[in-house]
Amino acid sequence: MLFSADEFEHYTGVFGDSLAASHLKSAQEIVENYLHFNLESKDYITKSISTGRAYVRAKARPITELRSVKINGESLPIEDFVFCNEYVYRTAQNFPNSAIVEMEYTAGFTADTIPEIIKTTVWQIAALRQIESGQNIGVSSKSFGDSGSRVFLSTRKYDDFLINCSKFKFK
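-> structure tokens emitted (171 positions)
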């Protein structure tokens, strides 16, 4: 799991929330839906059709390990390729046009490599979802001395938080 309930409790200052893991998981899913890729590191085997360029695009990002590349079923030396984010580049020449490229790779983040802005965004959204629990849909209540005041939050639309992660969006 990328996000620990302990870190989340320190972020929010709310301790002992039995639903903290659930809030984090749902917030992670919201961020993943926005970014169009799974955040957690996992293994992939994908096929795509090349366009005759020096690169092909993987189905996940960021690639952290490239294990094999086959072009039209023929395995090629892994040393002939480099990768960056979701792109795999063939160093010596372009991929043949309309070739079937099969790649085996690992992509995604670990708890140690996830960018801080994504981590903070997940925590912010999880905190808003935490506020919603206990029949406080969209309301956070604060009390100041004898006069009470309420702050109404829009907890169904997370765009203001998600926009901070836009540079990581898989387009």
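The radius of gyration is 21 Å.
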